[in-house]
Amino acid sequence: MAIETWQIDTTHSSIRFIVRHMVVARVHGRFARYEGRLFMNGDLVNAQAEVKIDAASLDTQVEARDNHLRSPDFFDVAAFPRIIFRSQRVEAAGQNRYRVVGSLTLRAVTREVVLDTEFLGRVTDPFGTERLAFSARTSIDRKDFGLTWNKPLETGGVLVGERIDIELDVQTVKAAAVKAA
Predict the structure, then answer these.
(1) Is the model's pTM score more than 0.70?
(2) Can you give the residue ranges of every domain in the chain?
(3) Fold type of domain 2-179
(4) pLDDT tens digits for range 27-84
(5) How many whole angstroms separate alpha carbon 165 and alpha carbon 146?
């Protein structure tokens, strides 16, 4: 069977993160630049995926905060310019639902993460391009990746939460088909 290659259509996709601020509020951010591919032989359970994110492209809509997040206190984008996810296996988890288990590398630290993923469908757009769409979520502890900077609050708790929620909405476009040997 032919292995299909699908590329992320970044104009119709998003990679977002949410973290607690001062215990009670949530700050939302996104990454503006990334690329990724999905390799599939017709069965999502056997698919493989890789996503590379430009860490410097983070955007929380507050320039001073973004600059601090890019600094060595957090992402240290000068030393670690990319965040990389590589799937290791895909497990069926119900109708159109999957657990995508893979390795996330952030600040040269690699940890296993599980993306709870929903397959949203396969369509051909009005221009004849085949598309696949997915939605996925996971949470990580930022300290596991060396993101340890924080400030204690007088009222208890800390300035920046430890848990980071990650949400992806991804459309892919069919790039090529290669015959399996």
Answers:
(1) yes
(2) 2-179
(3) Lipocalin (2.40.128)
(4) 899 999 999 999 998 788 889 999 999 999 999 999 998 999 999 999 999 999 999 9
(5) 16
